[in-house]
Design a protein that fits this description.
Length: 346
Amino acid sequence: MSFFSKLRDRLTRSSSKIGSGLEDIVSEAAADEKPASPAPAASQPATEPEARPGVLGRLLGRAPAVAEPRRELDDAMLEELEEMLIQADMGVETALRVTANIAEGRMGRRVSATELKELLADEIARIMTPVAKPLPLYPKRPQVVLVVGVNGSGKTTTIGKLASQFKAAGKKVVIAAGDTFRAAAVEQLQVWGQRAGVPVMTAPEGSDPASLAFDAMTKAEAEGADLLMIDTAGRLQNRQDLMEELAKIVRVIRKKDPSAPHNTLLVLDATTGQNALSQVEIFRKLADVSGLVMTKLDGTARGGVLVALADRFGLPIHAIGVGEQIDDLDAFDARDFARALVGLGD
Ligand SMILES: Nc1nc2c(ncn2[C@@H]2O[C@H](COP(=O)(O)OP(=O)(O)O)[C@@H](O)[C@H]2O)c(=O)[nH]1
Ligand SMILES: [Mg+2]
């Protein structure tokens, strides 16, 4: 199955929310616009012929094609559209601007839900195209990728998936299990590492992640690895500790390579909706975030938040996750995402 089909199938909650939202907006009002009911049947000749399908249609036994309902684009409709996009987690500012762009030059025109979906997908793709950038690969060896984000956002899983994919693409990868606070995180990475054939550097629970990062850097250099991916803890409840921990990791790896880390990925969980926006603000203060990965777009009605993120921060979106398996993570494609989000096909 292509990643697009998977994305479309699994984004069903978001897309059905936006897609059916648009259909409702158009069809409810279209129903209201129908002419008032005709005079009572009693006053009409009983022999009044019914509208008949065309001769060819009757021969083929086909029902006459039902045209898609249309509704005149007016202020009331735009307000409903805005409201629906805000409900879909797109954020107020983004929803207002997208709606204004759709309205421009189209006021008073009668539009169908399919036309609206196409217009909306185009607007979303326009916002997201500039940020759709795969993780940049540099000739620098090892390229150090620091992975940050709150607990449960999907850091460890994302590292496992990325490491497997890079390894499959012929890259030499080393993983540092830098979330030394959770033994489970270390085991989880070891499983991914074994599956992919990627070495995982670990340290005892509770030990200093910075010294682990230093050792991992040494190993990655010695082995001529292309990539070193460093997992971290995400204990936001103690922000000062986390900031110091991340700063220390950066400090020690810079002793080996002053240009490291080359990427700092912030992993965000789509199911947190608008909260993802404040996570970006917080983590930009804690670390030099260079790009985003959004996980758990499967089965959430909050996929619209990715549009708000792109619009607000303009940070590159490297990849999106739609499940727990290796191939459930792929580079972010703006057009595919936009079409899947509004419930349109490829
Ligand atoms: N459905 C789904 N689950 C995911 C995805 N990414 C991660 N998870 C799950 O989310 C949970 C937390 O992930 P984990 O990588 O441990 O998060 P961490 O605390 O940031 O390291 C795990 O159960 C993962 O299997 C995704 O794209 N879709
Ligand atoms: Mg983890």
